[in-house]
């Protein structure tokens, strides 16, 4: 798994590299387990939905901040633009995955290394920890 982090500068690129690695692992093992085709499609759809929801929440929170301040700053407009740009780049990445047939996906590998089962489990755990429920679990426990 360390090779995934060595080539990544951080942020959204890190997430996309991990998503690519996981999807590549699923694609390579579809011959062993046909249900992995469904899993691959599920992950792509879930990540697309998450991107849409995160963008809507970020824009809504900015609008709420603008209305409470009473003035509209150029910095906020720039931030909204950045949010939209980041969301569009994520969606573009996921659309490219959707358009790519599973058998062709192996040509999109990030490098020559392959992800094994243990690395795939770590990637899934890491990506799951980034989801809103996992991040707010401590709040639910304290309440």
Automatic annotation (TrEMBL):
Composition bias, Basic and acidic residues: 58-78
InterPro entries for this protein: Scc2/Nipped-B
Domain of life (superkingdom): Eukaryota
Annotated region (Disordered), positions in chain: 58-81
Alphabetized GO MF terms: chromatin binding; cohesin loader activity
GO biological process, one term: digestive tract development
Gene Ontology cellular-component terms listed: Scc2-Scc4 cohesin loading complex
Protein's UniProt name: NIPBL protein
Species the sequence originates in: Pomatorhinus ruficollis (streak-breasted scimitar babbler)
Gene it is expressed from: Nipbl_1
């Amino acid at each position: 798994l360390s090779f995934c982090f060595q080539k990544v500068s951080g942020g959204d690129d890190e997430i996309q590299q991990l998503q690519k690695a996981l999807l590549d692992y699923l694609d390579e093992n579809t011959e062993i387990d046909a249900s992995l085709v469904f899993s691959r499609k599920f992950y792509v759809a879930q990540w697309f939905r998450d991107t849409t929801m995160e963008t809507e929440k970020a824009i809504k929170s900015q609008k709420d901040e603008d209305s409470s301040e009473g003035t509209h700053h150029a910095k906020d407009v720039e931030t909204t633009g950045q949010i939209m740009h980041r969301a569009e780049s994520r969606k573009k990445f996921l659309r490219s995955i959707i358009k790519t047939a599973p058998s062709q996906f192996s040509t999109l590998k990030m490098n020559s290394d392959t992800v094994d089962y243990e690395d795939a489990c770590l990637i899934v755990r890491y990506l799951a920890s980034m989801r809103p429920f996992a991040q707010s679990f401590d709040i639910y426990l304290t309440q």
